[in-house]
Sequence to fold (139 residues):
Amino acid sequence: MTDKNYEESLEKLYKEVKPVETAKDRFEVPKVEGHFEGNKTIITNFNAIVSYLRRDPEHIRKYLLKELATPAVLEANRIVLNRKISSAMINKKIEDYTKEFVLCKECGKPDSELVKEGPYLFLHCLACGAKHSVRARIV
Ligand SMILES: [Zn+2]
Fold:
């Protein structure tokens, strides 16, 4: 193998490997999509966000209700907030939710589950096994 070939094959390898790694390591919660209806805010991809976070939609609903201080109603695939709220604000709250209830505080990985033990709620990391207590009652 000549040096040139070696360089070429390295470059090829790098190109092939890099996108796979980024896709795998990157945890990016979908941004909210939706619109206003009168004074209400409708988020139409709520289900996609919920299934990406792998959390109970009711738990996220309560969180948004509390954090945005507005009634929030689940309707099939969407959530309806009872006032006009910018998508930036909602994205920020979902990001906060992710930090508090999804990402492991030890390793930062999102492979986790919420475990209830008596009155307490724990974030259990399936990647490293760490367990942290989190707010059991949002509202
Ligand atoms: Zn972990």
About this structure: The beta strands are 34-37, 40-43, 72-75, 78-81, 112-117, 120-125, 131-134.
